[in-house]
Request: fold
Amino acid sequence: MTATSHKEWRALAPDGVDVRYFEECGSTNSLAAEAGAGGLKMPTWFVAGAQNAGRGRRGNAWSSAKGNLYCSYLIQPEAKISDLATLPYLVALAVRDTFIALGCNPDSVQCKWPNDVLVNGRKTSGILIESSAGPALKCDFAVIGIGLNLRHYPVDAKFPATSLMDEIDRSIEAAAAFKTLAHTLEHRLNSWDPKSVAKMIGEWRDCAWGMGLRREIRTSDESFFAMLEGLDDTGGLLLRLDDGSTKKLYAGEVFGPPRQH
Ligand code: BTN
Reply:
């Protein structure tokens, strides 16, 4: 399945959703945020064949060569900014649904806190959610940026990465992956109630990577090892530290087990 024009890409998205396609751009998240700040009110996907300034979480670059899917969904949720705290888990589940629909064995697709999706233990997608607040901290707009490694992945990534092609031995076109992703995400967003997330968080827990295991945690100011104990209903990662105490984390990254010497 290939698509080249805005019209062909729009036909892949659910009804009532617009799509703007670019062969190459800086960052689809930046394009979506500019459109949101400019007052665009229709839910709109920004999709690119390649990005030359792709952005990842925590200020990292996102390598964005042609062949993978790079897309950002601009939405205007009726919600407070604080209600968006659990949105990353919903988006990760939609990416997981997508990988399964594209041929991955469900048992091979796991969610790594906070919102990476792994196939066979390796990072296969990245999610970057950005939002803007209006008066009274009401959400003005949110941008859900998603990169799917369909064909390429960075070999020198901090957490081991892979591509769908390497894992399922099939080459998936960006248009086919986008069609599935746009529908699975829409389906999950339509049933999203930020005030009632227990079921969705439970689903995330059921496919979580590394739970019950000792892993490296990196935050903006420290790095330590701790046992991953679970996720609470506000999206906090529950940790058991080596001294037996507990800690809840809302920002940071999780890496592999300690190196064996
Ligand atoms: C991560 O660091 O894991 C998040 C990566 C998010 C990458 C996607 S690709 C589409 C969108 N545009 C960007 O510049 N970033 C996101």
